[in-house]
Please model this.
Amino acid sequence: MPSRRRFLMTGLGLAAAASVTCVTFRLGTHATKTPPDPAEPSLTPYAPGPEQEPLRETTPASLPARVTSSLVLIPRDQWGAAAPAVTPDGREEHGPYDALTNPNGWQIYDRPLVEVLDKLILHHSALPLTDGPLEIQHLHMEEKGFADIGYHVLIDGTGRLFEGRSLSVRGAHTYGANYGSVGICVLGNFEEIQPAPAQIAIVKLLLKSLPALYPGINRMAGHKDFNPDVTLCPGENFYSLLSGLAQEVSLHYGV
Model:
C-alpha cells in the first residue's frame, strides 16, 4: 500500500445559475490494485474556466421528482487539504486496515459503493462558523489521531459544499457506525445557533441525491442517535429537524 494514495474523489456540481433545482452525485473510487467497477460513476472535478467566477452562493429551489442537475463540490486541493497520512507500517488509521491486526486501520472498501453504503449520518462541527474544513482536518489529524478529515462532505454557513475524505474509504465520524455510512458535517455549533437556510437546503439535496445514486442508502440519523452517552452532535437546533427531513426525502430515520 503506497504511503500517499491518489483519490478519484466524490464529485458534485453546483449549477452556476441563480438557483439549483436538484442534485446528482458523481462519485469516483479510491485508487486500488483492482480496476474500478465500470458501473461506478466517474468524477469530473470542479474547475472554473477563465471567464467563470470560482463560486458564488446560490439559493436552491424545491426538488423535482427526478434528480437531474448537479451541485459543485469544492475539491480538497482548493481548500488546502493535507494528503491522508497513511503508511504501510502505520497503526490505527495511519496504517492499512486488517481485520485481525489493525481493525481500526485505513479501510478502503473492497466492494462497489452501491453494495456498501447504507446510511447517512448528520453532524455539526461544534465550532465557530469561521472554522472551515482546514481547521477541522487539523483537529482530526493532529489532536484526534485520524489519518485524514473524518467526514466525507462538509457544508459551510453559506451552503458551499466541501470535499472530505473519499466515499471509498470508511469514515471516522461515528463510533461503531462508520462502515457503510456517509458522514455529512454542517459547520456551526447548533447547540448555540440555528442552521442557516442555505445549509438546510443543501442538506436536503444531499439526502435526496445520494440514495438516488446508491439505492442501498435507505436511512439517516444524527450522530447522537448512535452515541447518545458521549455526544450532543449534531446539536439540538439541527437534531430537532432531522426526523422531518427524513420524512420529506422518504428515508427511514434512526439507527
Observations:
- The longest strand covers residues 119-124.
